[in-house]
Structures are given as structure tokens and as C-alpha cells.
Amino acid sequence: MRIVIVGAGGRLGAALMREYAREFDLTGFNHAQLDLANAKEIQQKLSPLNFDVLINGAAFTNVDLCESKQPEAFAVNADAPKVLAEICSEKKAKLIHFSTDYVFDGEKREPYIEDDAVKPISVYGESKRAGEKNILALQDRSASAKATADRHLVVRVSWVFGPDRPSFVDQMIKRAREEEKVQQTDHPERLRLTRQRSVISVADGGPDAG
Ligand SMILES: NC(=O)c1ccc[n+]([C@@H]2O[C@H](COP(=O)([O-])OP(=O)(O)OC[C@H]3O[C@@H](n4cnc5c(N)ncnc54)[C@H](OP(=O)(O)O)[C@@H]3O)[C@@H](O)[C@H]2O)c1
Fold this sequence. Notes:
Layout (H helix, E strand, L loop, with lengths): L1 E5 L4 H10 L4 E5 L9 H8 L6 E4 L6 H6 L1 H22 L2 E7 L22 H19 L11 E5 L10 H11 L19 H7 L6
Parallel strand pairs: 1-2, 1-3, 3-4, 4-5
The site of NADP nicotinamide-adenine-dinucleotide phosphate (NAP) has 26 residues, from helix 1 and strand 4.
């Protein structure tokens, strides 16, 4: 399988690059190699490549900065996924795109399911939701995407953590070492651990799917 990963320098992208390097024909683009805010550059760099799966691990993930940089947040989180989906559809390749629980307002006291009504309450959440919609709208218009195998995937995750960049989990560990009590901000029963290995398995409908 030929896989292209954009956002190859981020937490998720770097982990996927390591995980898949030996097993697959892998090409990665980090931010310096491909600027997703530039639609023309995306076309120029990705259209000539042959691949079966494109994994988008890139995003404008600084939630606070998104509030003051709305156009940039929407360019990367909403417009770029649309261009990526268009390129994949032309090639009959599958796009695996990552979204976030920030498409919800966090008020529900039970685990969220896919059909729950979205209600983003931040520019980050709104821009990520717009990205989801752009991909799914394009897919729904495409006659060739009727079969499940051809469909792009939008995967909503919450905390992404790993060795490549500090994350929320690292903050909690640091605070637990320094403070007597640490306020828990989420409900453990709402969490489910997913290994990065599962990404391709989900794409294949394999045992880790779901
Ligand atoms: N982190 C979390 O806890 C969390 C929670 C829920 C969902 N998610 C989603 O999961 C996915 C992966 O998140 P992550 O934690 O791996 O994020 P991350 O570590 O912040 O990585 C995102 C990557 O995107 C790159 N990027 C930003 N702007 C770009 C642009 N204009 N062009 C090309 N690349 C650009 C960043 O490069 P630079 O750093 O060089 O700018 C970075 O390498 C994202 O879709 C995110 O929305 C993350």
C-alpha cells in the first residue's frame, strides 16, 4: 500500500511515520515541505504522486490562537481538507482525516456518538467541523464513493499524546508530581484508548476498526 502522510512532523503524523515506515511505501510532508494554507501548493505537490491512502495529521491545533487567527485556522482546518479530498477522489485514493471532540460543546454527560448534534464553541471547533463537512459533502456527491471501501474517513479523536510533543497527558503528569491534588477535567468512562496502529486497520475495516 502506498501511503502519503501530511502533517508528518506533528504528534500524530510523526508517530504514524515511525509506525508505517517499514511496512508500507511511505511519503511524508511536514509543514516546511507542504503548506496546507496554500491550495495551489497542495495541488502541485500531491497531484503528481501515486498513492492509495492519504492521511491528514496536520491541523491548526492551537485552540487559543485560532480565536485571533480565524482565516488561517479555516484555511488549514477547513479549506485544505477539501482540497485533499478532491485530490484523493480524483485518484480513487482514500483520505483519512482527523477531527476532534471540539465539534461538540462538551455538555453531554455520556459518551458522544457520531450522530450527536455538533455544537462547536470555539473557532478551532468551528473550523474543524467545517473541514469534516467539506470532506463529507464532496464524498456524498461522488458516485464512485458509494462502496464503503472507497469512502473517505473522518476520525474524531480527543487527546492525542505520544513522545513527539508535550500534550495534555504530560501536563497532568507534571502537575501530579508537583501538586498534592489535580483536578480531573473529564470523565474516565468517556475515554477509549486507540493506538496509532489502528489507523490503517480502520481504513481496511480490520480487527481494530471502530
Ligand atoms: N492534540 C490533541 O490532543 C488533539 C485532540 C483532538 C483532535 N486532534 C486532532 O488530531 C490531529 C493531529 O493532532 P496533533 O496533536 O498531532 O497535532 P500537532 O502535534 O499540533 O500537529 C499538527 C501538525 O500540523 C502542522 N501544520 C500546522 N499548520 C500547517 C500548515 N499550514 N501546513 C502544513 N502543516 C501544518 C504542524 O506544523 P507546525 O507545528 O510546524 O506548525 C504540526 O506538525 C489534528 O487534526 C487535530 O485537530 C488533536
